[in-house]
Amino acid sequence: MTTQTETPSLHELDYLPYLDDTGNLPEQLQQKIGIYAIFDQSEKLQFVGYSRDIYLSLKQHLVRRPQACYWLKVQTITKPNRTQLENTKNAWLEENGTTPPGNGSEEAVWNQPIDAKPAMTEEEQVSYEKSDELMKTKLLKKIARRVEAQILEELQSRGVQTEIRFNPKLKEKGLLDLK
Length: 179
Prior knowledge:
The chain contains six helices and seven strands. It is of the alpha+beta class. Strands 1, 2, 3, 4 and 5 form a five-stranded mixed beta sheet that branches. A two-stranded antiparallel sheet has the order 6-7.
């Protein structure tokens, strides 16, 4: 992790573990502004992004793509400048040679709330079609909770200890996003 105004190349930065020995995200990144690159277990680039709070963004990505979040490279910036962040992001993507999945074909999966609706069983789909609005809301909430349990189980298997809380209002729409 570095804090500077010039753009370091991606390969110059050290890999940081996504989770520390205690199963927590790097707390030193809380409320830090900067750019980050996420790598999978084999250190293959998966996503490049920037944020006003790197820690919260990393937490969102971990929930959305736990199997792709094993390593990080980070540059924090003390005086945020969107142009600088965009330029660094573009330079890192260009340096990589290919567009990582999170900045290409899987961009929505990395950046949008998790849609639990595809997890509906055929029986639930039939029930959903026949239901009034209140019953649809209850069914979507039930499906969202089931998907949430699967996500939490996967995170637990990774040893994640960081508190994960989903926004209860979004569950009524069949969506999962952190609160």
